Amino acid sequence: MISSVRGTILQKTSEYVVVDVGGIGFKVFVTSTTLGALGAVGDTATLMTHMYVREDNLSLYGFATDEERRMFELLLGVSGVGPKMAIGILSTAALDSLRVAIASGSTDTLTRVPGIGAKLAGRIVLELKGKIDPRSVAGREPELVATDPDVLAALTNLGYSVVEAQSAIRSLPTDASISTEEKILQALRYFAEQRG
């Protein structure tokens, strides 16, 4: 198994990076948090990785911290949660917020993630609650990385990935008077500008 990679960033997209390690380019899928922590193309990056091996799929997932990788692996242990959904969860909910939600038995944070309904959110909380130390999250409140879950849901329903939607949401003004529809339009303009 590949536990970590360190090398030069050759390519950086909204869903993955390609890291050159000794002349071999590793395509590593990352969360929006990890993507934000990485430098630019040409910079050196170190990623903690999880190699996902299935009969028809061999993928590498990378994380800026070992804690984020550990949460990813815990999420994979839940029935019905695959690597793409686990990446989506970690891209939508901050790591501390996710721990708080699971430790407190709250499904609200999880149900705001596109593709996760009340039933799956309940299963995640139930299966992981005993694996999160409640003392490590005492007194904290869960919060989404994305400040607007309605816009996130709309963009993912239009076919954008959670990571792409997160990037667009971060580019939006924080003016509370802007309607959800206007935010979606501005996010679509952001995507148009990114494509040139």
Characterize the overall form: globular
N→C terminal distance: 39 Å
Give me the number of helical elements: 9
N-to-C SSE string, H for helix and E for strand: EEEHEEHHHHHHHH
Uncertain runs: 138-147
User: Which CATH architecture of the largest domain would you pick?
Assistant: Orthogonal Bundle
Report on the structure:
- The chain is of the alpha+beta class.
- The chain is built from nine helices and five strands; from the N terminus they run βββαββαααααααα.
- The protein has three domains: 4-63, OB fold (Dihydrolipoamide Acetyltransferase, E2P) (Beta Barrel); 67-137, 5' to 3' exonuclease, C-terminal subdomain (DNA polymerase, domain 1); 149-194, Orthogonal Bundle (Helicase, Ruva Protein, domain 3).
- It has helices at 32-37, 66-76, 83-92, 95-104, 108-111, 118-128, 149-157, 162-171, 180-194, and strands spanning 4-12, 16-21, 24-30, 44-54, 57-63.
- Helix 2 crosses helix 3 and helix 7 (149-157) crosses helix 8 (162-171).
- The N and C termini lie far apart (39 Å).
Quickly list its features:
196 residues; alpha+beta; OB fold (Dihydrolipoamide Acetyltransferase, E2P); DNA polymerase, domain 1; Helicase, Ruva Protein, domain 3; 3 domains; five-stranded mixed barrel; 9 helices; 5 strands; 44% helix
Give the SSE map.
Elements: E1 4-12, E2 16-21, E3 24-30, H1 32-37, E4 44-54, E5 57-63, H2 66-76, H3 83-92, H4 95-104, H5 108-111, H6 118-128, H7 149-157, H8 162-171, H9 180-194
Parallel strand pairs: 3-5
Antiparallel strand pairs: 1-2, 1-4, 2-3, 4-5
Helix pairs in contact: 2-3, 7-8, 7-9, 8-9
